[in-house]
């Protein structure tokens, strides 16, 4: 297959396109991008047959900022006949053998989601035909490749596969999170999603546990503090504005009516630092860098508000500068991840883990 299909947020196709063009070049996989505004997907067409497999296998999905999910794909199957959509799809997947799962999806747009009911019904007969052809195993297997069928319009679909060890576990790359009735704001979902994105399930019991100390800069009214509290942490909430009364009643929150850019923690045994302040991204990055250099936290999750133009360029420049500054200040062991999460809007979420190979005391 020559194409790499990437799901992204509608309106961020240019950013996703710029990123895959650069990252594919780093792997010496030549090609060009096909993208339209507000389609919520990008297609990278490789010059060489089979090159998409290299990207699907060797380009870590977690390292991409603007792509939610990706798969090696066929050419667009257009004008699928209403009386036999399955036949052409099964034929296009003839080179795929013994996949462990099939997902029938759509891009994340209102127009495409109108096909969601059809996709659910279509999955059952398609699954049976793929099993008969040998493209799909009789029983689901999470270690085998995943077959993707993405309908981008009525009778129009891209089909292909992703590798289970380099793929989102969620349909369309979107986690289905439920807004808690007692959460102070919808921003709470951003931190909930970020924990799931950046901390593997098998490590969450150790790295997101009860009894930890955390700081929330720009906490008001408490959407992010809520996620820390519900996980049993003790939180220093820093904001000049008011905090949610129910959060304060938990006894796990101490409210500091201060400017988050001037606040200095009294205790230096902080594990998590979180920050969702509406401020220029470079200034927020500088604040996190200062906390890191002072050794005031172990892991941080923070948002960078995106500019109107050159969003991918500015984000990558800020992250590169951060890594340079940390190294110049003697911090050589760290891990940085960045993702445009489903619950993000005009922002990206960054995770910084200092000295990931050392124990936290």
Core attributes:
361 residues; Rossmann fold; alpha/beta; seven-stranded mixed β-sheet; single chain; THUMP fold
Query: What is the succession of H and E elements?
Result: EHEEHEHEHHEEHHEHEHEEHEHEE
Structural class: alpha/beta
How many strand elements? 14
CATH architecture descriptor text of the largest domain: 2-Layer Sandwich
Mean pLDDT across residues = 96
Query: How many domains make up the coordinates?
Result: 2
Query: Major sheet: order of its strands?
Result: 2-3-1-4-7-6-5
Radius of gyration: 22 Å
Q: What is the count of helical runs?
A: 11
Strand content: 15-25%
Kindly provide the name of the CATH class of the largest domain: Alpha Beta
- CATH fold-level name of the largest domain: THUMP fold
Shape: elongated
Alpha carbon gap, first and last residue: 49 Å
Question: Which SSEs are present, and which pair or pack?
Answer:
Layout: E1 3-7, H1 13-26, E2 31-35, E3 41-46, H2 51-58, E4 69-73, H3 86-92, E5 101-105, H4 110-113, H5 116-133, E6 146-153, E7 156-162, H6 188-198, H7 201-207, E8 213-217, H8 223-230, E9 234-238, H9 245-249, E10 253-256, E11 272-275, H10 281-294, E12 299-305, H11 311-328, E13 334-339, E14 347-354
Parallel strand pairs: 5-6, 8-9, 8-11, 9-10, 11-12
Antiparallel strand pairs: 1-3, 1-4, 2-3, 4-7, 6-7, 12-14, 13-14
Helix pairs in contact: 6-8, 10-11
Task: Tell me briefly what this model is.
The protein is of the alpha/beta class. The protein has helices at residues 13-26, 51-58, 86-92, 110-113, 116-133, 188-198, 201-207, 223-230, 245-249, 281-294, 311-328, and strands spanning 3-7, 31-35, 41-46, 69-73, 101-105, 146-153, 156-162, 213-217, 234-238, 253-256, 272-275, 299-305, 334-339, 347-354. The chain folds into two domains: 3-173, THUMP fold; 188-354, 3-Layer(aba) Sandwich (Rossmann fold), CATH 3.40.50.
